[in-house]
Design brief:
17 helices
Length: 516
């Protein structure tokens, strides 16, 4: 009998109800988070340079937004390169009290997309604690999913991430964030955690998939967690190895799939071909810089985590604040959470208990429900196309691909888009990963049609500056081979939705040599 499962589910339901009653207003949560951050960091090198003591005093003793005005005036906005070169490198060399009190013991090597080298992000004890507490909060919200059976809480949780093995460098450790946080998994959860510590530590991605496939019949999996693209590859490998019709033949209790880092829309059609029955999808938004948001109710969107060591600022993602390449202009408009509006794209700034300050994380979000603080990730500041005012976002691209997949019954695994000159004007070149038979011309016309329906600016420019659209279907292996070439296979790695700069030439040369 699922005694533990029933106890967990009833406890989760009760605690979830209590949490709903105790919720405070977002502005109050954020001011409280802000004062805690500055209170702890005021005597660090960073805090002393930028007068945190004065800003903190304003937050505690003055009314209104004076504290935020002083914060904006005193503290510059940082991207990764700027904050690393000026501050974080010192912490990585072992200096104490640089941007956060004490010595940083861990650095997460962010996966990112294949267009960027790994970044070393500080992970402090306070950040690990904040991630743990947020994870517990998300588990508690499972009480809102009444359709989850009680015995599900006693099934296996298969987490497909990067290697949990950490590299010791001088006086600290470096590696995937999952490797840093896995060491803090509660003892009671170890029996449910799959693929287990030994397999999770493997660095060779193909060996890891092989070991998981070999052990798959021995596990009773109820939850999957990870990036959809890599789970698709794993599930296909298991189905092929054991000659199954679908994954539920080997894991009949598989009920939920938690994912993050990318939109599910392009992958959903392909995933559902591998399932034998409906699966509940639960979204999370956790980056190397912190656990930012999670889905806390069925059919809901991501809810910002406002009370766990992160202070959020929002920059309207428009021509006033960003140039045509997605670079931030000087003195952009920034807003606190209470002043945002729904259905507007914002670039995220975060200040955290890991020593990130006014840090441009690179993602853009849109508030879907301001009352509930629910957002949707719409793309990246550098991953959009606006050659002539078409303002094509990753959100538009993802949605269009989902619609096209359904209409043509295609399994589209990946895609990327390049903006090109098409004298005398411009064009978009799409590359679509699918192993199904498809007519490029039909695919092109349908993608173009869907985006015109989704984006008014795009529809207008298709009659003016954006004179043509080209689409080339490629085997899925082409995208996977490119990721392998870049050393970005598995874990949290993602293929960039938009290619720019030198990556355009590299990608096209790669295709010419291997997939002409």
């Amino acid at each position: 009998m699922a005694v533990l499962g029933r106890l967990l589910k009833s406890s989760i339901k009760f605690t979830s109800t209590i949490q709903q009653i105790r919720k405070l207003k977002p502005a109050k949560w954020q001011k409280k988070a802000f004062t805690k951050l500055l209170s702890k960091a005021r005597y660090t090198q960073f805090g002393e340079k930028f007068n945190f003591e004065e800003i903190l005093s304003s937050a505690i003793f003055e009314n209104g937004d004076e504290f935020y005005d002083k914060f904006k005036k005193n503290v510059p906005i940082y991207d990764y390169t700027k904050i690393y070169n000026e501050w974080w490198y010192k912490a990585r060399l072992g200096e104490k009290n640089v941007c956060w009190p004490g010595k940083v013991k861990y650095f997460a090597l962010s996966s990112g997309t294949s267009d960027a080298a790994s970044k070393a992000i500080p992970v402090t004890k306070d950040m690990i604690k904040a991630i743990q507490r947020t994870s517990i909060n998300q588990i508690i919200t499972l009480g809102q999913y009444t359709e989850l059976p009680a015995d599900l809480y006693e099934k296996g949780y298969l987490m497909l991430g990067g290697s949990t093995a950490l590299n010791e460098v001088d006086s600290h450790y470096e590696g995937d964030l999952s490797g840093i946080t896995t060491g803090t998994i509660p003892i009671w959860f170890q029996n449910f955690y799959k693929p287990g510590q030994k397999i999770s530590a493997l660095k060779d991605w193909e060996n890891k998939l092989e070991d998981i496939t070999v052990n798959a019949p021995n596990w009773d999996i109820g939850f999957l967690a990870g990036v959809p693209a890599w789970h698709t590859i794993l599930l296909e490998q298991i189905i092929d190895r054991y000659k199954l019709k679908n994954i539920h033949e080997i894991w009949p209790n598989l009920t939920a799939f938690a994912w993050g880092g990318v939109s599910l829309e392009p992958y959903k059609q392909g995933l559902e071909r591998l399932f034998g029955k409906p699966v509940i999808y639960i979204e999370t938004y956790m980056a190397s810089e912190g656990f930012l948001a999670y889905q806390d109710r069925p059919d809901g969107n991501l809810r910002l985590v406002l009370n766990r060591g992160i202070f959020f600022e929002f920059i309207p993602f428009n021509e006033d604040n960003f140039d045509e390449d997605g670079n931030l202009v000087s003195n952009p408009e920034t807003l606190m959470v209470q002043y945002v509006e729904e259905e507007i794209d914002y670039a995220l700034l975060i200040s955290t208990c890991a020593g990130a300050w006014r840090y441009l994380i690179g993602d853009t979000v849109k508030f879907i429900d301001k009352k509930r603080m629910e957002i949707k990730i719409t793309g990246r500041t550098k991953h959009f196309l606006s050659l002539c005012g078409e303002h094509l976002s990753v959100d538009n691209m993802n949605h269009a691909i989902e619609l096209v997949s359904k209409d043509l019954r295609l399994d589209i695994r990946e895609f990327t888009v390049i903006g090109i000159k098409h004298p005398p004007l411009f064009a978009h070149q799409w590359y679509i990963a699918t192993d199904d038979k498809v007519d490029d011309k039909q695919l092109c016309e349908l993608i173009d049609q869907k985006i015109c329906e989704l984006n008014d600016d795009y529809a207008v420019e298709r009659k003016h500056g954006l004179k043509n659209i080209f689409v080339k279907a490629l085997p899925s292996q082409a995208f996977y081979d490119w990721m392998k070439l870049k050393g970005k296979v598995g874990g949290q790695h993602k293929f960039p939705r938009v290619l720019k700069g030198k990556l355009v030439d590299e990608w096209q040369e790669f295709l010419k040599e291997n997939y002409s």
